[in-house]
Amino acid sequence: MTPLNFSFYLAFMLGLMGLTFHRTHLLSALICLEGMMLSLYIALAVWSTQFESMLTILSPMILLTLSACGAGVGLSILVATNRTHGNDLMQNFNLLQC
């Protein structure tokens, strides 16, 4: 495993560990998810430049677009829960209630 691949793997695993251990606030969970997506994006961009193929050039852009859409949805959920609950604590959410 090259040091570059190890750093991408380590960045993704740090984001995953942060998501696992720091789930008290919704904002911290969203930041960990964005870190994971950013490490995947950079790894996919480096991988596509190594192959120098036109088919793999669009993959990082598609991942970045989907990540931006997910971040927008996550932030809109954060704003909606702050308006209804007054904070972003994950323990206050009841997912079974409409």
UniProtKB/TrEMBL annotation:
It comes from the Eukaryota. Its EC number is 7.1.1.2. Keywords: Electron transport, Membrane, Mitochondrion, Mitochondrion inner membrane, NAD, Respiratory chain, Translocase, Transmembrane, Transmembrane helix, Transport, Ubiquinone. Its main location: mitochondrion. It is found in: Mitochondrion inner membrane; Mitochondrion membrane. It holds the Pfam family Oxidored_q2. InterPro entries: NADH_UbQ_OxRdtase_chain4L/K, NUOK/Mnh_C1-like. One of its GO terms (cellular component) is NADH dehydrogenase complex. The chain crosses the membrane at residues 6-22, 29-48, 54-80. The keyword Transport applies. The keyword Transmembrane applies. It is a multi-pass membrane protein. It catalyses: a ubiquinone + NADH + 5 H(+)(in) = a ubiquinol + NAD(+) + 4 H(+)(out). It is an enzyme of class 7 (translocase). GO terms for molecular function: NADH dehydrogenase (ubiquinone) activity; oxidoreductase activity, acting on NAD(P)H. GO terms for biological process: ATP synthesis coupled electron transport. Belongs to the complex I subunit 4L family. Core subunit of the mitochondrial membrane respiratory chain NADH dehydrogenase (Complex I) which catalyzes electron transfer from NADH through the respiratory chain, using ubiquinone as an electron acceptor. Part of the enzyme membrane arm which is embedded in the lipid bilayer and involved in proton translocation. This is NADH-ubiquinone oxidoreductase chain 4L. It comes from Chikila fulleri (Kuttal caecilian).
